[in-house]
Amino acid sequence: MERAAVFDVDGTLVDTNHLHVTAWWEALRQAGHRVRMHDVHRAVGLPSSDLVAHLLGEDRDTALDEELSSAHKALYGQYFDRLPALPDAGRLLKRLHRDGWAVVLATSAGGAELSALRRAIDADEAITATASADDVERGKPAPETVEHALELAGVPAGRAVFVGDTVWDMRAGSRAGVRCVGVLCGGIPRADLEEAGADAVYDGPAQLLASLSDSPLA
């Protein structure tokens, strides 16, 4: 395969962003932090330690970061058996695979969480590889996760497209030198995605699938 379609997962292929917001808000609340859900939502997509720093500041007690992350994982894990794929997410990946794209997931999820997400998408036969934030030193918006995805696919940046739902995704893809496609299903406004580097923006996987012939994935 000579071209790669790299996909973020949470909020892009699976409708989980607001579950993450609720789990992070509750984890923070239990630790005595009052944080607006709006602010949590805008931080979703960052690696756990970066998300906590973004919300609580650099002067926080960093010794508690792992405790907050573990609380979030435990709360979010309650949903693993019923994570909802976004409409046509699996069909989109299967179509791209049939069209000759190497489909690579680029996500901060791993272990049981990643398995639950892949079960929800139900398109394992179309997925070439998965690049996790655990595989690199810095997660999004640093480019390393996307660059690792390209290495796994064996494709240069100029032959790849990255699809994501957050400004962190768009910045990571842009810094990696790939074309970026934004989707609105994660709840981030179109203007924010475009400002962060999106070449095109769609409502979600279903609209992208219906518009493939006129999209950067044509």
Automatic annotation (TrEMBL):
Alphabetized InterPro entries for the sequence: HAD-like_hydrolase_sf (IPR050155), HAD-like_sf (IPR036412), HAD-SF_hydro_IA (IPR006439), HAD_sf (IPR023214), PGP-like_dom2 (IPR023198)
Highest taxon, organism lineage: Bacteria
GO MF annotation terms: phosphoglycolate phosphatase activity
Coiled coil: none
Record-annotated membrane-spanning stretches: none
A single GO cellular-component term on record: cytosol
Annotated signal peptide: none
Entry's Gene Ontology BP terms: DNA repair
Protein name as it appears in the record: Haloacid dehalogenase
